[in-house]
Amino acid sequence: MFYRENGQFKTSYRADQQILPIRQDRLLMAGLLVVAYLVVPWVASDYLLRAIILPFLILSLAAIGLNLLVGYCGQISLGHAAFMAVGAYAAYNLAVRVPGMNFLLVLLLAGVCAALVGALFGIPSLRIKGLYLAVATLAAQFFIDWMFARVKWFTNYASSGSVSTATVELFGWKIETPAEKYLFLLSVVSVLALAAKNLVRSHIGRSWMATRDMDVAAEVIGIRPVYAKLTAFAVSAFYVGVAGALWGFMHLGAWEPAAFGINVSLNLLFMIIIGGMGSILGSFFGAFFITVLPILLAQVPAMLGFNLSVETGSHLELMIFGALIVFFLIVEPHGLARLWAIGKEKLRLWPFPH
Amino acid sequence: MKKNWPVYTLGALLAAGLIAPLASGAAAPGFWLEVLIGGLMAGVLYSLVALGFALIFKASGVFNFAQGAMVLFAALSLARLSEAMPLWAAFALSALIMVVFAWLVERLVLRALVNQEGVTLLMATLGISYFLDGFGQSLWGSDIYKIDLGISKDPTIILESVFQGGILISKEDLVATVIAAALVAFLAVFFQKTATGRALRAVADDHQAAQSIGIPLNHIWVIVWSVAGVVALVAGMVWGSKLGVQFSLQQVALKALPVVILGGFTSVPGAIAGGLIIGVGEKMAEVFFGPVLVKAFDLAGGGIENWFAYMLALIFLLVRPEGLFGERHIDRV
Known about the structure:
The complex is a heterodimer.
Chain A (H helix, E strand, L loop, with lengths): L12 H4 L6 H21 L2 H27 L7 H18 L5 H20 L7 H21 L12 E2 L3 E3 L2 E3 L2 H24 L1 H11 L1 H6 L4 H28 L1 E2 L6 H14 L4 H24 L6 H22 L3 H15 L5
Antiparallel strand pairs in A: 1-4, 2-3
Chain B lengths: L4 H19 L5 H32 L6 H18 L2 H24 L7 H23 L14 E4 L8 E4 H23 L1 H11 L1 H6 L4 H27 L5 H6 L1 H8 L4 H30 L7 H15 L14
Helix pairs in contact in B: 2-6, 2-7, 2-9, 2-11, 2-12, 3-4, 3-5, 3-9, 4-9, 6-7, 6-9, 11-12, 11-13, 12-13
């Protein structure tokens, strides 16, 4: 009744091709941004920000990055946490070795470093396809994990191998409290998410999707697979690298190489599968789901009055997490983004089904 | 055959790397041989885990990430059951448990996910692996358990007359090798000679064609997951008696991934050959190449065996994308 496009006529190509063609969607998005910028920082408690919202934002960015590669270009990667690590350590080294560098520049360069490494490890994708590639990307994961643990230069010769970051300062603004971090992250994530959305609508994004759908056919119609695959790897690693730098500086503060292990890679993959492959919105859904689920699983038994030991609790958590993932894959293999699309479609017809 | 020169080059390089420590005099022949044998035995154990992967991928096209969790779960069951009963009974009971598990997986997961993409199935097996980890540890406990195969762990020294100091060989490793060889032989006979084996191979070749001549896919899946479960049990038994049954067993199983891609996903001989190559390469690299790296780049310790297998597999795939024994496929539009 309220959500339909009757009477919204498009009189220019510009209007026809905008990201949110329906006015109600635009209003919803504007409202969401207003709430996110003006209401959330005041209302949300520090705990809520620190435990859920900050990780959610950063992981959404990482999930978008992985989604560009897996969802749009069809190249599976099990090693994306390694690119997060590259971003984080690049940012750390830039911040330590070049004092006074603007943090935005640090982020950008960290992303570029990750993109270069990503393109390097993307080269096998030109020869290897599908699940073979998935296992091959594990090489990136384990090699980079090892490299940051062993090569002392990267950790600035810290004896314990762990690094810690100073407070981030941006144009004289000290980003210290969770609310400030939240505002900064929100800005970065919104800009990059918008960029990603536009990227996948451009000729690059279309060449990725053509490669994903059938690479031989894409090659026949004139898409260079080398170019498509390597740009996908580079852009994806750029996003993930920026997310890694943010994860290190804004969320962890101090970390060691184990912070970017294979479990993180797998979690990122879960996010895009549960959220929806080939959907920017889905990346947000997936990141939210994976961030909130463990916290819920840890809290629910206590709320219901069960007194579980820590060990039993963590085992139960594993079981429920695994079972839920299988359940989700069976019920909706196209992810939460598909559910959202179905919901919108239903809403357009409501209350008359025809 | 003209196009095969990269494979030969790579093979020659590997062989050169293998001989180099011996030729350059960096290692005594006895020590070199000892490392080689150690690598071969580790390789046999990798092959055991890799076999499970290859079997399941061959018959159902599922890349089974849960194989590691299956190994751990099977080893846990065996270790805990053997505390209450003799080893053979515990083994039989654990095998039964793995069969029930296979049936449940087919019933609850695979059947609902027919015709999904490879990556979705991969994720489903990841979910299974999480579940199995949690389930196994809450059912059997999460301490370190022992499996006692009744073999002495003392190393024996052989060939003392040929090399100075002889060569150390652990009897346990020898038994493991024999078990692995027996298992492989049994599987080969099972696949080639029995009616079920023929059905399995038919399914592996072409799902639809197999179904159309009346082979029930669901049964085949249960069978193949059961066989993979029993293979996991054997692997878990051998690994477990060597390292103790604990969570880190899963990490060992992860090492089987480069083995399967090196050998080719669908190939049983590939799993064996890949395991041996990776096992030897890894041990050689760790012992001889690692210290060189550490010295050259001033590293904080070696540990290159964490990634060496993957890098080896990756380089290998660049040369031969379908693995050592994998089927070559031609893309058509």
